[in-house]
Structure formats: structure tokens, C-alpha cells
Amino acid sequence: MKRILFPTDFSEIATHAFVHALEFAKVMEAEIIVLHSYELLSFDEHFFHENYSMIYDAVALSEFDVFKEEVPKMHKIAQALTMDQIKMTHRLMEGSLVNNIKKAIIEDKIDYVVMGTSGVTGWDSFYAGSNSGSVIIEIEIPMLCVSLEAKYRPIKNIGFTTRFREKDRKPLNKVLEIAKKMDAKVKCLYVKTSTSDVSFDTIELWKKEYSKDPISFDIVLSDAIKVTVLDFVSTKNIDVLMMLTYKRGFFEGLFVPSYGKKEEQELDIPILAIHSD
What we know:
Layout: E1 2-7, H1 12-28, E2 30-38, H2 45-48, H3 52-80, E3 88-94, H4 97-107, E4 112-116, H5 123-129, H6 131-136, E5 143-146, E6 157-161, H7 169-182, E7 185-192, H8 200-209, E8 215-221, H9 225-235, E9 240-245, E10 271-275
Parallel strand pairs: 1-2, 1-4, 2-3, 4-5, 6-7, 6-9, 7-8, 9-10
Antiparallel strand pairs: 5-10
């Protein structure tokens, strides 16, 4: 059985993302491991002397009380959505969020991460300033990022941005695996800019290779990449947008100059981030 890690701080954003995690688990026939991570404040033990351990114990106990109070609420949400048959286990871990997620991925043999994000108005700031962005560059399994603007809807069309490189094949095959499980289609977008060097022979080779799969390829000539991606999401009825991530943390192909007010528009669909070597 597949396993989904769902990190949560029990905020409105996380609660909203939990619905997506449940729906994803239902379709993928997976179980959910709920992770609540917290960090203890940094105290100078020499300054606090004998009160040092007491302060730590009080903070840890407070986090445990919150955890104990919030977990039943999550089960009620699952029950209200008639998805209480999905197996859920819970982990309360002290330490940094990224380190705890990496540790849980190994120890619990996690296949996917689903996590709420505060939004993606301007992808640069999303990466640089959010917990989700920090996690993305540190893990190598697929991660579904869900903002408050991303209302749940059945996934029928998965968008995939590509530049037809060999290292794009592994993530694409992973997306196809997910799509087939969901009975969805994969719609690939290649934004051919004035400096692009991908030949049409390469594109035709890919089309032929994936001709028997539920996949299509759109080639758009443009130097305004962000605007083109947003147009693609809208006109092709994309339900989730898959983007390749690299160790440097960028969503490949989006961090380049583009023009027009539309580039500041928020995506109102989840982003599926998949690591590429």
C-alpha cells in the first residue's frame, strides 16, 4: 500500500490541504501518516539554571495537548467526507520541519507528501519564503502543494511542463503512473522561446514513443513563459500542474523574465512537484 505523509500545523491552510490529501489517498489506495512537527525555543540553560528543563517540558506538553485536541477533528473531517476507511496514523516530532519530514520519509517508507502552502503569487517568493518551498528542494519524492485558492476537484487533466530532455522522462513516467491510477490525461506543455534549442525531430520522437499513453503535447512559441503556463492551465482545464524541481529549488522554466499583469495571478490549482536529477 502506498503511503502519504501529511505535515500539518493544524492551521486553516493545513486543514484545507487535508481534504486534498484524503482525496488523493482514496484514489491512490494509500494510507496517510499525519505529521505534526514543532521546534522548542532556544534557551540559555546557564541563564535559566534549574528552570531550564521545566521550560522545555512545559513547551513539549503544550504541543502534545494541541496534538491530542486536533487529531480527532481530522478524523471527523474524514468521516464527514465518508473517507474514514482510509487508514491514518499520527506522528508528533520535535525538531525542524524539513529534517522531520526527511526522517519520516525514510522511517515510514513514504511515497508522496501532501502539504498546504500559503500561496504562489510569484513563484520566486513561494520558494524563498514558505515551508513548502523549503521542503520541495530537500526531498526527492513527489509532493503535492495545496494553497487555499486550490479548491478540490477530481483530477482529470494533469499539466506537465517539459523541455524534452532525457532527465524529464523519469518524472513524466511517474506522472503517467499517477494519471492512469486516476483515469486522467497528461497534457504536456513546451514553451519554445527564441533561444530554445529543442528540435522538432526530438519532439516528434517523444510523441511517437508515448503514442499509446493518455498523453498529449502542446508546443507554444513564446518568450513569456509564466503567462503561457497560466494560459495553458486555463484553456486546457488543468486540475493539477506538475513541475520539475531541482536541488537549487527552482521550478524549472518559470524563473525567467516575462511580461504582463497576468504573471502575478495566483494558480488556483495544486502543484505537483517532482524532483529531477
